[in-house]
Design brief:
Elements: H1 2-35, H2 51-55, E1 68-78, H3 88-102, E2 107-118, H4 120-123, E3 156-160, E4 168-171, E5 178-182, E6 184-185, E7 188-189, H5 194-203, H6 248-251, E8 252-253, E9 258-259, H7 294-306, H8 308-311, E10 314-315, E11 317-319, E12 323-324, E13 327-333, E14 340-344, E15 354-357, E16 365-368, E17 375-385, E18 388-399, E19 408-412, E20 415-417, E21 420-422, E22 425-429, E23 434-436, E24 442-446, E25 452-456, E26 470-472, E27 477-480, E28 491-497, E29 504-510, E30 517-523, E31 529-536, E32 548-554, E33 560-567, E34 571-575, E35 582-590, E36 593-601
Parallel strand pairs: 1-2, 1-3, 3-5, 12-18, 23-29
Antiparallel strand pairs: 1-10, 4-5, 6-7, 8-9, 11-13, 13-16, 14-17, 15-16, 17-18, 19-22, 19-24, 20-21, 24-27, 25-28, 26-27, 28-29, 30-31, 31-34, 32-33, 32-35, 35-36
């Protein structure tokens, strides 16, 4: 009996030891699941189902667009007192790295915003897991179950930790809409490295290239064969990514990014592994990462089309010109499969520009400027998916006429210029040269400048204003000041566009102070003869003017087309019957003064 009791005691002791061992084993398993992959910089759980495969039981949607725009929001983790964490420059570098890495695949990112999360507890947080299997998003909303400060449904939340924290990146799910990243690994600050693009790859539906090879953390994993025979059903489920044994850190060289174990590791078929050491989704050195394969990009596009989580973080924009000459086509960039677009521009009858819905294809529109009516308008695109409005977009556009005359108004307040009070001037632009005062700022409000750019034609020398003129594109206002002593010098501004509409120009002059004479210009019918007339402004002596010199320039040519010295008569007739059509500038040199005028030839 005593022996039996001792045996039972021994049995119960062994059972307790076994339970303690199992408990320790469980703790060790949790430790492995939360830290094993951190050695390679990524802690994203491999125990996530292939979302594309689960969708195939329903109707799998294919992408109908060639680009997507994705919104991201950066959260900078800081201590409670506001210290620690990434600098603004590091945040900018992180965003620019992300943009650059995905730009070749027509995946664009827009920054929805940034904030600072000041909390000692969250600054020092290291555990983001919701269970012992390393899962972080058990409810499937794309965010972390145990960590989601200031999260956004309409953006991928990127939590940037300090360079001495975490030492890994972690996506909430595959696909998902949140990730954490921080620390330094392989002498690289992970936040602003290609590892950020690696974690975004998880958010967009991509698995590790070695997925299925880790029997400890993926007991039901399915490794991809080197021959690719199971490339779409095992591994990372992407056919064109080479099979990867997850040994690049053991067999790779960081400075050359080469695979040095071509004869060491073999798959279940006896074939030797030769992984791509440059893939973003491989466990490779951060400096070696530089591309996704075409198959991975296709998987991203398919994931977006079939994931509500990813559809919620999409942004859209209207693509098309801002200036319409004859007609222009508009479409929504990144439109989802099954979405519809309704267009409007606020006008529905001639002579206004006419909008044609679903032209030339469904969900696009064409605006025709048949009557060449100059107008600024707001183009609106209303996007619906499954009957619900998911976005309303606007774009400022303009239609143009066939005129080469730039219209607008100008104004100039009075000011003192070298002891002389200059009067206020104002007027309208109508194609003629504009005369303004020296020394006083000129403000020119230009009409119909949407889609157009303005430039100044330098004249060189001390009277050049290349560095002092300014154009405010928001208000379409040109501002400049003509310097003292610049009388009769032409100042030209060119207005151009890239839509085929006529280019335009404006000429400004300033007149001399206390002129002793006035130049007037008249023309015969047909512009065959042009007469230059001088009138003395000195009443006491009408013979004050002796002889004078004349130079005439065609504004489209660099040199003068006419020059006459010591003209005696007050009226000087010039035969212009053979001159080309155009605008001509006259400089008359009278008693150390320069008088300037303009005439137009139009035979």
């Amino acid at each position: 009996m005593k022996l039996l009791i001792n045996q039972n005691a021994i049995f119960m002791g062994i059972r307790k030891l076994r339970l303690k061992f199992q408990y320790l084993l469980l703790l060790f398993s949790i430790c492995l699941n939360t830290n094993a992959q951190i050695i390679g910089f990524c802690a994203t759980s491999p125990n996530v189902p292939n979302n594309i495969a689960t969708i195939r039981t329903r109707a799998l949607l294919s992408s109908t667009t060639d680009s997507y725009i994705i919104k991201v929001f950066f959260h900078v983790m800081r201590k409670s007192d506001g210290t620690g964490g990434q600098t603004q420059q590091e945040v900018t570098t992180a965003f620019n790295t992300l943009v650059s890495d995905y730009q070749p695949y027509n995946i664009r990112f827009v920054l929805l915003g940034t904030d600072e999360i000041k909390s000692d507890n969250q600054y020092n947080q290291t555990n983001f897991f919701a269970d012992a299997n390393g899962n972080t998003d058990l409810n499937g909303d794309g965010k972390f179950d145990v960590f989601s400060p200031n999260s956004h449904v309409n953006a991928i939340d990127i939590y940037l930790y300090a360079n001495d924290k975490l030492n890994f990146g972690l996506a909430a799910n595959i696909p998902g809409s949140a990730l954490v990243i921080g620390g330094n690994s392989f002498n690289t600050n992970l936040d602003s490295s290609h590892v950020l693009s690696h974690e975004i790859g998880h958010c967009l539906g991509l698995f590790h290239t070695f997925h299925g090879t880790d029997r400890v953390h993926e007991p039901n994993g399915c490794a991809e064969f080197v021959d690719g025979s199971n490339g779409t059903t095992c591994g990372d489920f992407v056919q064109d990514t080479p099979a990867d044994p997850s040994r690049i850190f053991d067999c790779g060289t960081q400075n050359t990014c080469t695979w040095n174990c071509s004869t060491t590791y073999i798959d279940a078929h006896g074939d030797h592994y030769n992984p791509d050491t440059h893939l973003f989704m491989a466990y490779t050195f951060p400096n070696c990462m530089n591309h996704h394969t075409a198959g991975q990009v296709a998987r991203i596009f398919t994931s977006i089309e079939n994931s509500v989580i990813l559809q919620n973080v999409l942004d859209y924009e209207i693509s098309g010109p801002t200036l319409i000459c004859d007609q222009a086509n508009y479409f929504v960039d990144g439109l989802l499969n099954g979405a519809t677009v309704t267009w409007s521009n606020g006008y529905s009858s001639p002579p206004y520009p006419m909008l044609f819905q679903d032209n030339p294809v469904a969900n696009q529109c064409t605006i025709k400027n048949t009557w060449k009516y100059p107008l600024t308008m707001t183009l609106t695109a209303t996007i619906k998916l499954n009957g619900n409005i998911i976005a309303t977009l606007t774009k400022q556009i303009a239609s143009c006429d066939n005129s080469t005359i730039q219209t607008g108004t100008y104004s100039q307040l009075s000011c003192s210029c070298y002891g002389k009070l200059k009067s206020t001037t104002n007027g309208v632009l109508n194609g003629n040269s504009v005369w303004v005062n020296q020394c006083c700022p000129v403000n020119v409000k230009l009409d119909n400048m949407v889609g157009r750019t303005i430039s100044y034609v330098p004249i060189g020398g001390i009277y050049d204003i290349s560095s002092s003129w300014y154009y405010n594109s928001t208000t379409s206002t040109l501002t400049f000041t003509l310097p003292y002593g610049s009388a009769n010098i032409p100042y030209q501004f060119n207005i151009t566009n890239s839509s085929g509409c006529p280019n335009k120009s404006i000429l400004f002059f300033s007149s001399a102070t206390d002129q002793k004479a006035t130049l007037s210009i008249s023309q015969s019918s047909g512009s065959n003869q042009t007469i230059l007339s001088l009138t003395s402004n000195i009443t006491s002596d009408s013979n004050e003017i002796n002889d004078w010199d004349v130079e005439i320039y065609n504004t489209s040519l660099p040199t003068n087309v006419y020059k006459e010295k010591k003209v005696k008569e007050r009226k000087h007739a010039i035969n212009t019957s053979s001159w080309d059509n155009g605008i001509y500038i006259v400089n008359a040199y009278v008693n150390n003064e320069v008088l300037t005028g303009k005439f137009i030839i139009n035979h």
